[in-house]
Amino acid sequence: MITFDSSLLLGYYQAKNAGLAANATASTNQSSSSAPSSSGGKTVPSSPWTTMTSEPSDLVKAALNGRKFVDEAAAVAASPTISGDYKKLFAAYQALNTLSAIANRSAEKGVTDSEIKRLQAVFSKGLNEVNSYVQNLSTDGMRLTTGTVMTSDKSTVGVPKNNYNYVTNTIYSGQVDDEVPTFKGNVSFTMNVKKFGVATDVTMDLSEMGSTPRTMANVVSFFNQKLSDAGFDTQFAVNRTVGQERTTTVNGQTVKLPATGDDFALQIKGDLTETLTFSAPAAKPAVYITTAAGNPDPDKDTTTDDAVIENTLTKYGPGTAGQPGTKVFSDTLEGTISTVHKTMTGPDGSLYVLADVDGTTSTQTIKGDQDVALLKYDSSGKLLYARTLGASNTATGYNMAISDDGQVAIAGSVAGSLAGATNGPINSDSAGTLTDSFVTLYDAKGDETWTVRRGGMLEDEATAVAFGEDGVVYVGGRTKSDIPGSATGATEGGYDSYLSAFATDIAGTPKALFTTHFGSENDDTVSGIVVNGTQVVVASKEGSEAMLRSFDVSTTIVTEPRTYLNDKEVWVTEPTTYTKAATFTEGATRDLGSLKGGNIAGLTIDNGQLYIGGSTTNGALDVDNKTKAASGGSDGFVARLSLDLADKSQDTLAYYGGTGDDTVTGMAVSNGQAWLVGSAGKDLAGEATVGTKDGYVAQINVATGQASWEQRLTGKDGYATPTSIAVDASGSSTLDVFGIPRGKMDFTQSDKIVSATSARAGDTFQVRTRARGTLTTIKIEQDDTLDTLADKIRKATGYAAKVEFSSVGNNRTLRISPSQTTSTVEILPGKGGTDVLESLGLKPGIVRNTKTDHGQTVSADGKGPIYGFALDTGLDLTTDVGRNAAVSAMTKALSAVRNAYREMADTANGVKRTDATASSNNNATGTVPTYLTNQIANYQAALDRLTGGG
What is the pTM of this model? Predict the structure, then answer.
């Protein structure tokens, strides 16, 4: 099909006609579109879009058969009279036109997945070919870039600044002078303020207010007086959002209603010199639940992907005496969060969420189709930071662990490249789709310490992780082939389980201390790992069996001299203590029996005992002392066992469920109480169904088998599936009344680029200061900040680039512009899958100053106009959104070529922008040049063919 945007021609003709009239005398002397112009003897060849006759389908076929996209000889063959810049421009046009045909073909209905895959491959090849051609192009009077032409390149992704203001969620809605109902009664908390090394407790007990009404303003005044009396600068304030006016329609008339009540929150104005820590008396457990809600198939057509799923995070207080826990807050998570795999509470009272994301999350862009995000929230639900893995293709985060000192380890699978990772000896091809296991360690501040990517010849993934003694991190998962260095080989058939141990060497580089395989002849996977001193216990599903395996690990700790170049570029030698080696011996195993289609949802240690939970249709698991029997169908279960896996005298097993099928997606344990979440059958807990498909939460006393809190959960469209649960034993208190998080209030943010963005150490981009000049690669280092990156850019461009900082909200961003009037800086993507521009929010292209010449904006360096195609090398034809974006991008790129041609033709014909503008304003008329008349005739002929001449 040939498509033609007639409005483009009409708009161009209308804009140019009057200006061209002023040059009618010169134009009428032309005998053809390629005849010499009277203005300077130059020729204006007919444009390829008016003379080319190839059908789009022929272009696609030729590309699939391996024909080059950029071929100057073919451009000359199509237009024999072209030379110089026209030849190069037309060669670029032919390549872009073929890419456009491919993009349009991918967007047609009925195209198979296999054809899409072929189209994507050849499309990517073509983009790379066009990029290479344009980047190395030598031109006479004009310049091209596959990026954007700018006066400055402003980053759209920033690094957070330290913010010493904290605003709570809304804690009251009403009138400004009303007493706040939740402030009544015995309400108090303690605020520990540490200043210049001295810590002081300030007790905020509202009973000390006496008969003073407990309004927002009065309570804030009370807090501030207490702080002022203690000599501190931190202050509270009322944050008020005025209620909005409402309207309704009565008998066709719009009627105004009274405004809703105002929303009130507390604002804490911190001070740089004061560290704040909050606690409250009689703290009780808090329960955090994530839920995926929404109809999975709204149009009842399984071939379409029309579901809109919302992920929510809800905090509950403790449930007691059969009463459900009080809901503290329920927030909808960012829409780009596709799946939540795990939640855990940290030693500081914060909540960590491990999720897969399919788009920008908390301003962090992702490079591929899916990435892994670690999200940290305070106990009031405020997002403290987000950390994305930075995978170039796709990654999934399955599990995480938190150490006693606040370190966080996440584990999962990754396909495609992952810059900055320590790689195993035979990982999968970074350009392929096979997955490898990964584990990433973050320090207590949320900065990445290291990442290991490790795998075999076939697919594997890490599904469990735990912290051990002596800095060892244990990782378990499943693999289809041997993992290098394993003490035992993988068994035959499907996936086999593995356990690996990692620690850093003397230089701080992570290394594998040991790996072992285990499992059955069926598909196996590790579901959880716990560590008790030197003992490591692994829970795995081996075929259908629920298995527990114990390993005893012995580490070798050494102190050796290390010589290295410090941050001041001075060689120093100092003793370094590290874990040099580790060995293991296999201990006891225990088979709990067949899960019969069920799963293992959790493994943990509580008060010196081992807890394992999940779902099963087997009502006779091999665990003694059943305190609650199975109900039929699929039930949840929680088992309490001895850590040695041999002594059955401490066995306790409680099933939970109804006669329908109930699943378990998460388990948490605290002080002998177990919490389960999952999907509910219709008669679960004897409660009526509240939605089409409900979830549930249940708090179970394992010793008695009785549930002290049972609640069905629903959500958007009547569907709800809890995806994870975490319990903080001290997370619920009167602090919830004020919306204040428990623990230390951290106002600071990491200024590292690799923490604040999806950039990874080793990612790159390129710069140069003249066409075809030497490209200088700028590499992101682990400790780079915006300041160090700005310095790298200045030096790499010979200070032709001026790099400044600006503030957007609470973020600090980069702005790159020419340092001198005639300076030009070209910014290009990094090579080999390491491009970091999108992660930084920078556009590829040319940054230059401009000036006005005869009413026309031109480059200030006097080296001719610059035309940008604004191409994204990561355009993706495998999704509807990607295909639409590719079609739009190609349309814009082709438009840029047409614009370049028109301006080159104007120049050849002596048309100046001021002449055109003045004539247009006077509605002047005149003879249109021959080359434009020929183009119009060709367009009309094409339209006649399409419409049958009608």
Answer: 0.87
